[in-house]
Amino acid sequence: MKLSSIGEFGFIKRISETFNQKLPEGIVGIGDDCAVIPIDKNSCLLVTTDMLVEDVHFMKEKISPFELGYKSLAVNLSDIAGMGGKPESAYISIAIPSETEVEWLDEFYEGVHNLANSEKILLLGGDTTKSPDKLVINFTMLGKAKPDCIKYRSTAKVNDIICVTDYVGDSGGGLMILLGDLEMNSDSSYLVQRHHKPHPQIQEGMWLASKPEVHAMMDISDGIDSDIQRIMESSGCGALIELNKLPISPALRRVSAKYNWDPLEISASGGEDYCLLVTVEPDAYENLASEFKSKFNRELTNIGVIKDKDYGLQYIKNGIKAQLKKHGYDHFV
Amino acid sequence: MKLSSIGEFGFIKRISETFNQKLPEGIVGIGDDCAVIPIDKNSCLLVTTDMLVEDVHFMKEKISPFELGYKSLAVNLSDIAGMGGKPESAYISIAIPSETEVEWLDEFYEGVHNLANSEKILLLGGDTTKSPDKLVINFTMLGKAKPDCIKYRSTAKVNDIICVTDYVGDSGGGLMILLGDLEMNSDSSYLVQRHHKPHPQIQEGMWLASKPEVHAMMDISDGIDSDIQRIMESSGCGALIELNKLPISPALRRVSAKYNWDPLEISASGGEDYCLLVTVEPDAYENLASEFKSKFNRELTNIGVIKDKDYGLQYIKNGIKAQLKKHGYDHFV
Q1: pLDDT at A325 over 90
Q2: B245-255: per-residue pLDDT in tens?
Q3: Which among B108, B97, B126 has a CA at the least distance from the CA of B68?
Q4: Phi/psi at A91 (nearest 5 deg)?
Q5: B200 with B278, same domain?
Q6: Using one digit for the tens of pLDDT, what is the confidence trace for B177-214?
Q7: Considering just the CA atoms, what is the radius of gyration of chain A in Å?
Q8: In terms of domains, do A231 and A288 share one?
Q9: What is the C-alpha separation between B188 and B173, in angstroms, rounded?
């Protein structure tokens, strides 16, 4: 049987069923942004790992080594942020084609250091090896969180407001500009920057995780369309997403108009936004959003509502039921 | 500047100098088998990560998926063993070519589970992604150790006896059989098994680490010739290795005689033995070796002595100075 016949998430489900057997009390394994291991009464260790492969996750000729180093760390920080943790130390494995210039690698590590320094992350280990062909980067990230301030994918409740913590779709738009070799101006540069230098929402994650009215949380890596399904599966619920409510940046609107793209489509399924997808107790949403706004100077945007399981996943656009053309990314399909 | 001009260890030195700046007290970063992070008075977290790349570390047609899964975990357990720790949880990232059969992956994970179950390791996370070409596997392993029972590469002392905890060279011999497509009999099968299913010396490592007379320790992954140089660099010392003292298995002796190989050469530079390289207070060696023998039913073999830094690394064979033809593996040279 080919891997493509069960898909990435089918495969993860297949292995996680055996992996998650008989875990000791309090330990959370595969199935969320991070594994959770209790340390003591007041703290848990969070662990996440992400592999980036040349020509799958990035194209070496489209991203500077500095940005690639920065982004490789950022996507792992985002997983820790997705559960409300404080990232602490990173471990970098890298398989390097022999013809790689040392100067390219120096710049790559400068990008890693740049984000590590600003977020006070210690770089404590790694592995370097030869690659016969493609550059492969794996980061493992360790973080900490208080046990009662960790948010999971599995704790969404029916009627929760579904929110996002930033514009969505910029990264997907940036990727389309890169893939199409489109003209660079200030708008397209902004979108490409959002694709290459995502800002992991660590402070936002920690703050939201400290709020009991926040029920479920994860970071958006594969796109809302894919990631909301992770919450639905884990929480046993359905979801309604109102496409017109998706927060779209002025730059993405302008670039979409120019190239006749559908910005709603890009925002729902583009992926790599690395902001947070959150479900909130409906009565508490207004207050929380206004506190969030005054703290982070950004909207906690209501984009839909959690429904019961039978509802499945439905989209509304301009008041009527809608379907996405493209869906979130699956590696094996 | 090409990477090959500074080599793997030159490159690691280059990046570790920037990585290890300003680490908080008690934290050990790049430069040993694992990173060490204090948790509380009685325990430290050990973290290690290793990347295995198809056609660099393994050939898919020469190793079964079960063995590859087993070995991928084993080499990481060995790093924890090399510092005297108890391995606890593993995180697997894997980049998979699209044409891979699900059944192949099932067998791979069976190999991982087999060793994980016997060593009571929890498999708590990972990442699965597509690879355009080669299979790439990255394991990250977390373990624990008591702060006063961790052994480093940096603590060897002049006059220490250098020891190994098992036969060396079997894995190197097994690799030569695979690469040469040589005839399989019980001896060559044994060597190939030693190459494919290394036994991480966790109990041995924990026991040796509890002994104050053991000064420095690491696992042998790149071969004695390469790994003793890691101890020399970290401890600021030299070393004399007596090639005739290297413990060589009867199988490797017989296969070497048959194919006219030099078993001393293979044992000193073959690599992937995944037993332990240990330096011991000279007065304490006899007692320790006899205790080790009665506990593990294996020799703690004296293979040489730590010298001062100016001595460098010297080999003796049949009473006279000798040079190795091949040296330990460097990925980029």
Answers
A1: no
A2: 999 999 999 99
A3: B108
A4: -135, 120
A5: yes
A6: 999 999 999 999 999 999 999 999 999 999 999 999 99
A7: 19
A8: yes
A9: 8
Q: Do B125 and A57 touch (CB under 8 A)?
A: no
The tokens for A8 are 């990435």
pLDDT band of B332, cuts 50, 70, 90: low
Average pLDDT over residues B155-176: 97
A135-169 exposure pattern, b = at least 16 Cβ within 10 A, e = fewer: bbbbbbbbbbbbeebbbbbbbbebebbbbbbbbbb
In a domain, B103, yes or no: yes
Q: Is residue B110 part of a domain?
A: yes
Q: How far is A159 from chain B (nearest CA, A)?
A: 30
Burial label for A231, CB within 10 Å (0-12, 13-18, 19+), is buried
User: Which residue in the block uniquely carries the two structure tokens 């280990």?
Assistant: A125
Stretch A77-100: mean pLDDT: 95
Cβ of B101 and A3 within 8 Å? Answer: yes
pLDDT of residue A331: 60
* DSSP-derived 3-state class of residue B305: strand
Mean pLDDT of B82-99: 95
Cα A77–Cα A82–Cα A88 angle in degrees, nearest 5: 35
Please tell me if residue A49 touches chain B, with a CB cutoff of 8 Å.
yes
Is the pLDDT reported for residue B327 higher than 80? Answer: no
Local structure of B282: helix, strand or coil: helix
A3 is a domain residue: no
ipTM: 0.91
Tokens of A150: 């960790």
What's the distance, Cα to Cα, between the start and end of chain A in Å? 13
Give the residue among A129, A122, A145 at the shortest CA–CA distance from A38: A145
Distance separating the N- and C-terminal Cα atoms of chain B: 13
pLDDT in tens, A207-216: 999 999 999 9
Alpha-helical runs (H) found in chain B:
7-19, 65-81, 102-118, 170-179, 186-196, 202-209, 224-235, 250-259, 263-269, 285-296
Nearest to A137 by CA among A81, A192, A60: A60
Locus of tokens 């990477």: B3
Say which CATH number the domain at A100 has: 3.30.1330.10
Tokens of A132: 């016969």
- Which chain A residues contact residue B124 at CB under 8 A? 19, 23, 27-30, 35, 37, 47
Q: Cβ separation of B93 and A51 shorter than 8 Å?
A: yes
Closest CA to B165 of B83, B220, B233: B220
8 Å CB contact of B39 and A39: yes
- Assess contact for B117 and B3: CB atoms under 8 A: no
**Residues forming a β-bridge with B195:** none
pLDDT confidence band for B328 (50 / 70 / 90): low
- Indicate whether B141 and B187 sit together in one domain: no
Q: Which residues 65-94 of chain B have a CB within 8 Å of chain A?
A: 89, 91-94
Per residue in A223-247, pLDDT tens?
999 999 999 999 999 999 999 999 9
- Based on the fold, state whether residues B143 and B167 are members of the same structural domain: no
In 3D, which of A67, A72, A183, A205 has the Cα closest to residue A138?
A72
Mean pLDDT of B34-52: 94
Q: Which domain holds residue B97?
A: 32-148
